[in-house]
Design goal:
- The protein has 391 residues and is mainly alpha-helical.
- The chain has one domain.
- The chain is globular and about 60 Å long.
């Protein structure tokens, strides 16, 4: 399925985006590349996850949908909070500050609120920290809330899908979602920003939950997919125009998009122009051209990559930081070091995937399987459709 290829591609791109963040300071070219994907990378992942949730919902009752997602998403999240994120924090600390304490001393300070500030004045944590798996936590919450809606009012989503099909045709497919994103950007972003603190991350919730729900609603809508294909070139033009207008402002001030928008809030219009245009273009071009690669050898490759990309997402940041830490004393050329870090991280992801496929408890921790001894009788039969990956 074309969405599975998009999911693999965007997740893989997100891995290299995080590598770029390691090398961004002092390298404007890296910053510009990151800025190009910044508006739409997480939004399209939530949209794809919403579509995958729709396919799962067709085979499960609402209660079992919530149950299955919980068993697949929470163990990796817990593993990350307890094991991976502290290791990432320690590696980041010794790479970016003058901290000289050992890992055990760091862990004591990391989990002890009164001692937390003693780690370093500029490196303060509020435990627990879910790090880059904030996406998994938010996805789980959105799925649980959606499951409650499906349980209490099971027919609402078909009526809402029909309403979207009436409204989102032709240019309206570009205009209305862009308008909603822009209103949120101009009203909520200056107040809340994107802080990843779940209870106070309201701008992020509005945008992420909206695209998650949108993906759920359009997953089975042939009409909207046809419209996305028709509007793909217009979406591409919209995305390029948004980036062309937004990037020079950020480049001029040179202190990141957050700082630039704080000083000039109107720039958010261009941010969302790129965001929604890119999403329409990716979905439209993907639906038109990627479906042909889901047959034969393409299907075999897709099954393998789609199965492993969630595990890669879980382990890539600690693997990346370890590679950078090992290579730092060599003082290599920037391009050489980034290439070696990318290759080492990719190898580590494949190794983790293969181990997770073979070792049961590791498979649970790294998102390859759910806890097998917990069973929930389905209220209606049906196997998972395409897009049944955990995220």
């Amino acid at each position: 399925m074309d969405l599975d290829w998009l999911r693999v591609g965007v997740f893989a791109g997100l891995i290299f985006y995080h590598e770029g963040l390691l090398y961004e300071p002092g390298h404007p070219g890296v910053s510009l590349t990151l800025l190009f994907t910044h508006p739409w990378r997480m939004s399209i992942l939530f949209l794809i996850s919403g579509a995958a949730t729709r396919f799962m919902a067709e085979g499960f009752s609402a209660r079992r949908l919530s149950f299955e997602r919980t068993l697949r998403l929470l163990p990796p999240l817990g593993f990350a909070i307890l094991v991976l994120v502290p290791a990432q924090a320690y590696l980041t600390l010794i790479e970016t500050t003058a901290y000289t304490g050992g890992f055990v001393h760091f862990l004591r300070a990391y989990v002890s609120a009164p001692e937390r500030a003693q780690i370093t004045r500029n490196f303060n944590y509020i435990v627990p920290v879910y790090g880059h798996l904030w996406f998994v936590f938010y996805l789980w919450i959105y799925t649980v809330v959606l499951s409650l809606g499906l349980h209490w009012a099971p027919g609402w989503f078909k009526r809402t899908q029909a309403g979207l099909e009436r409204v989102l045709s032709g240019p309206s497919l570009l205009i209305w979602p862009f308008a909603i994103f822009t209103v949120a950007r101009l009203s909520l972003y200056p107040v809340f920003g994107v802080n990843l603190g779940f209870l106070n991350d309201w701008y992020n919730h509005v945008t992420s939950a909206c695209v998650f729900l949108f993906g759920f609603l359009i997953a089975r809508s042939d009409k909207i997919w046809d419209e996305l294909v028709k509007m793909r070139w217009a979406g591409l033009v919209m995305a390029v125009a948004g980036f062309a207008a937004y990037a020079p402002f950020v480049w001029h001030w040179g202190q990141g998009s957050d700082f630039a928008e704080t000083q000039h809030p109107g720039m958010g219009v261009f941010y969302d122009l790129e965001r929604w245009g890119a999403i329409v273009a990716l979905l439209g071009f993907g639906h038109k051209h990627l479906a042909r690669h889901t047959q034969g050898k393409g299907a075999v490759a897709l099954k393998y990559l789609n199965g492993g990309i969630f595990t890669a997402y879980i382990v890539h940041e600690p693997a990346m930081l370890i590679m950078k830490h090992w290579l730092r004393p060599l003082q290599l050329n920037l391009a050489v070091e980034m290439t070696l870090v990318a290759l080492g991280t990719t190898d580590a992801c494949f190794v983790a995937y293969e181990l997770a496929r073979r070792v049961n408890w590791l498979g649970v921790a790294l998102g390859q399987r759910r806890i097998g001894w917990l069973q929930f009788p389905a209220r209606r039969p049906g196997a998972l459709a395409a897009g049944s990956s955990p995220a």
